Every structure is written in C-alpha cells, then in structure tokens.
C-alpha cells in the first residue's frame, strides 16, 4: 500500500512539474522563462502575462486544477430574510458542484439608486463562519459584510468548507485541496453577485481577514471579475511563516500537497505570495499587515509587497493600486484600518474609479 502511494505521488510530481518552470527567486518578478528554460527580462505586458501564466500553473501544482473557466449559473435559494436598519439580510444557499450547495448571507442595501458595487466577504478561522462578517458574531471588528452593506455595497459572505453550516469533504469529491474547493465556491459567490439586478458587475471586490485574507487573494488570482481586494492578516512569505515550517498550510483544511509533494519546505514550494500579489495586477489590492501579528510575520509581508510593486508600477504604470499599511497591533483588523480599506474600495469600486485596466 505504501509503495503504491509513493509511486502515485511520484507520478503526480513528475506530471505537474512538467507544466511550468519554478522560479527560485520570487523577489525578481520581472523575469520569465521560455520553453527551453532560458530567462528573459519582462519588457512588455505580454512578457509579464507569460510569467503570470506560470504563477497560476504553479499554484495548481499545490492546490489542484483550477475551476472551469465557464461555471454553470448558480441556483439560489432564499431560506430567510431579515430587515435591518440600512439593509436586508438574506440567508441563502447557492449551487456549485453537482449536489453541493453553499450556505451564505446576502446583504442588500435598503436605499439604493442605480446599480451598486458588491463585495465577496470571506471569514476568518472561526466556528461560526459566515455569521461573523455578516455581523452575527461577537467581534464587530470583523463584521465587514454588514459594515460595507451599510456603506452601500451588496455583500455576500459564504461559509468555507467545514465551517459554519457547510459540511463538505473536498477530497472525497475529487479536489486536491480545500483551498481549491474554496476558490470554486468563491467564484460561485461572484456569480451570484453578478446575477443580481442590483449589482454593477464591473464593480465587484473581495475582502477577508486571516483565512479569509488569503482566500480573497486566491479567488482574485483565478477570477478576474474581482476588481479590488482587501486582505487583512492574510499572508507572509513562506520562508518567514513560522520560521519556514509550513505545517500550518499543509493540513486538510488547506493544501495537503505542501507536505506530500513539497516536504513543507519553502524552498521547494513552486509559488509564493509575492507572485500572488503581482498576479492580481493591475487590479487594486489593499494589505493590512500588523506589526505584532504572531501568525503572519510582518517583514515577510513587506518582502512580498516590495517584490510585487514593480509589476504594478513598471508593467502597468499603476503603482497606486497596491497599498499596504502596517499598524501597531496584533492579528487584528482595527477600526481605523478598516475605514482606510473601505475608503480604498470607494476609490476603486464605488463609482469613482471603475476603469482599472
């Protein structure tokens, strides 16, 4: 049994490594490799898109195959509706994979004129899942779906697999990671937003804290309909995560291949968060990285932002679309930082700057 599993792992490893080159220096993103392994300077957007394609392929080596580009239209069922000051909160489920329905809260502003911007709101690691961003938890600093609805955004907050009311085994259903199942579901949530008559589909963003912070980035990389991202306490470079021990990323709630194929070793990982940030360009990204975050070490965040900036700046001429703040706080999303992130979203989504290409 062990030998068969080892042979299977080696076969998968050979197959996935044949697809895209792995770049050892993730600090210099203005380089791409051709099919012969020769390195070239990124001089044009077309050059960068070759490197970007390698980033996505390398993410798939760890996460499993990306969702199909054309997803079926979601079927939405409304389970309950609550009218609150400023918005209506609907508890819904929506379809994703065959036989699978994702529970979510959908918040729609009560007073509106014309089409509205919308936000995908992803929760942290918390038992109550979607209820926290919807304002039903005890930590009001993480009630961003409710706060943004109060500011005029349509918001949706789904449960991540095996949080809140959502029980689903990704591995029994053909997924290589819970992360990729999350991406599939989050793209489905964007489908829900885009289908609503209240929503301007050109102005859809994503926001999340901790677990939701990196899931917002992952969703934006694979779904280009997401025009702006706010990530709070969501990442650091793999080399500076827990001193380079990637055990926390490799369990079944995330990406088991990090252990199975890459030995939990940052050096062996085929992608890093510097590349993820850059792959979202030229769309807008706001990063909250507290100085005293004991989970995602702040200098690793600074490294990733510094590495990604040249793509925003030199490739697209859009340096102002990558903004990072480093408050003197712990693993938190403080009120003043949330307000700054909402102002950032207003700038890029709420009717002020909707042309981001």
Largest sheet: 9 strands, mixed
Number of helices: 10
Strand order of the largest sheet: 3-4-5-7-6-8-9-10-11
Q: Name the beta content range.
A: 15-25%
The level of helicity is 25-40%
Number of strands: 11
Distance between the termini: 52 Å
Mean pLDDT: 92
Q: Nearest-angstrom radius of gyration?
A: 20 Å
Low-confidence stretches: 1-18
**What is the H/E order?**
HEEHEEEEHEHEHEHHHEHEH
Task: State the secondary-structure class.
Answer: alpha/beta
Shape: globular
Architecture overview:
The protein is of the alpha/beta class and 357 residues long. The protein is 34% helix and 20% strand. A 9-stranded mixed sheet has the order 3-4-5-7-6-8-9-10-11, sandwiched between helices. Strands 1-2 form a two-stranded antiparallel ribbon. Strand 1 (31-33) and strand 2 (39-41) form a beta hairpin. Helix 4 crosses helix 5 (211-222), helix 5 crosses helix 8 and helix 8 (273-280) runs parallel beside helix 9 (298-315). The longest helix has 19 residues, at 45-63. The N and C termini lie far apart (52 Å). Residues 1-18 have low confidence and may be disordered.
